[in-house]
Amino acid sequence: MSFELNKYVKIIRYKLNNGLDIVLLNNPKAPIVSMNLSYKVGSKDEKPGRRGFAHLFEHLMFEGSKHIPKGEFDKICSTAGGTNNAYTSYDYTAYTMTIPSHQIELALWLESDRMYNSEISLQALETQQKVVVEEILQTIENQPYGRWREHLAESAYKPECSYSWEVHGSKKDVAESTLDDVEDFFKTFYKPDNACLVIAGDCNPDETMSLVEKYFKSDVIKHEIKRNNFSESYKLKGAHKVTYDNVPLPAVFISFHLGDFKSEELYTADVLSYMTGIGKSSELYKNLVYNKQIASQVGAFVDKREHCSLLTFYAVASKPLVSADELSEEVYYELEKIKINNYDDQLLFKTRNLLTSQMANEIQYSHGLADMVGNFTLFRNKPEMIFDVLGKYDSVSTERIANLSKKYLNREESIRIDVLPKEIS
Q1: Could you give the CA distance from residue 313 to residue 411 in angstroms, rounded to a whole number?
Q2: C-beta separation of 298 from 275 below 8 A
Q3: Helix, strand or coil, per DSSP, at residue 384
Q4: How far is residue 190's CA from residue 380's CA, in Å, rounded to a whole number?
Q5: CB 76 within 8 A of CB 189
Q6: pTM of the model
Q7: Strands 21-26 and 195-201
Q8: For 5-216, which CATH superfamily applies?
Q9: Which of 213, 267, 252 shows the shortest CA–CA distance to 334?
Q10: Among the CATH numbers 3.30.830.10, 2.20.25.100, 3.30.2130.10, 3.40.50.300, which is that of 237-424?
Q11: Taking residues 231-246, what's their average pLDDT?
């Protein structure tokens, strides 16, 4: 199916008078429907004192509404044979649901009731504050190497930039949030004209739109959202921070600023990151883990954001005597080789095929298709980009990789975070 998605999935787009963007992708081959309701609000829309509030609010949206008591949302969905989930990013919050196609009306009612009739009690707020604080403790603060991203955020952006903190935010800010904060956040961001609803799967367009209008149509109340500013001057470059934590071995994380996630360059950055740090055939693995045996783990990834993305490479030492300086020198050396095309062309071919197959696998399922189309619609206003995304990776050439590397992967502009065991401090 990989390059023929448009042959059996047709995009049908509507916009309700209240501003809600609707995208339907009808594919009756399987009797299921996946919905993705994305709101354009993430941690970058927070302010100091409310860091982590977007993630907290994601939890609160499962705490009940006017017609759905606390704890009943999941129960109603699962009883109908469905599953649901949600996640928060720097730039948006998404609520997902997959359900048998004959239950589509139920799914639309569930999501519309949360949008229009959310009712959050003080008890619900206090419960989720404890849950989120505990989640930060378990998944970030008590995890080996769990806090390096916080140090990166602080080192890569000025304090006045809302990318200077991570999505999970601050335990203190989460714990001190009030019901007034909740109400203000809901009224500001959880509005139809700040959202996109994608429905993919066995969904007859006429019948589905009739149901969408039944449950999501509302009086036209469009509003302006005063968003945080972002400026190129907010980027910090050339930073080096050394931290000490309860970790067994030294590790180094080296990041570089990229363009926003509308940039075509990010497809090249994806290929570069996979070639360099993903799998046993990657350059970092072959040279740092296998040949020189100074690293036990290596990796690379692109952290895509609306205003400024980051490309990160990392290596964890294989033994205590390997220093962060030694690891970083080897990482920088491998990146310099990329700039001059000093790698096996077969690796580029394999990497493009790997990325294309992974992407094709994701969008062959209705939930992956709905998720990706929601992103393209919310931020690019082009749901049809889904038909071209696979070909983007096939068009990445050695020349484009070298040009991207020369443009962004300059050592003097890198943000380097060293994480060292406490006992050697």
Answers
A1: 12
A2: no
A3: helix
A4: 20
A5: no
A6: 0.94
A7: parallel
A8: Metalloenzyme, LuxS/M16 peptidase-like (3.30.830.10)
A9: 252
A10: 3.30.830.10
A11: 96
Q: Is 56 helix (H, G, I), strand (E, B) or coil?
A: helix
128-132 CB contacts, 8 Å cutoff, 24+ apart: 128/56, 128/59, 128/60, 128/63, 129/56, 129/174, 129/175, 129/177, 131/59, 132/52, 132/55, 132/56, 132/59, 132/168, 132/174
Per-domain boundaries in the chain: 5-216, 237-424
Burial per residue of 328-339, b for 16 or more beta-carbon CB atoms within 10 angstroms, e otherwise: bebbeebbeebb
Q: Is 200 exposed, middle or buried (0-12, 13-18, 19+ CB in 10 A)?
A: buried
Same fold flag, 5-216 and 237-424: yes
- 278-292, 331-345, 348-362: which has the minimum mean pLDDT? 331-345
Q: What is the pLDDT of residues 308-327, one digit of tens each?
A: 999 999 999 999 999 999 99
Query: Nearest CA to 325 among 238, 237, 250?
Result: 250
How do residues 3-49 score in pLDDT, each as one tens digit? 466 666 889 999 999 999 999 999 888 899 999 999 999 999 999 99
CA distance 304 to 76: 34
Neighbours of 301 (CB within 10 A): 17
Pairing mode, strands 251-257 and 239-245:
unpaired
Question: Read out DSSP for 26-49?
Answer: E-TTSSEEEEEEEES--GGG--TT
DSSP states of 227-250: PPP--GGGB--SEEEEEEES-SS-
Dist. CA 137–CA 216, nearest whole Å: 38
What is the C-alpha radius of gyration for the chain, rounded to an integer number of angstroms?
23
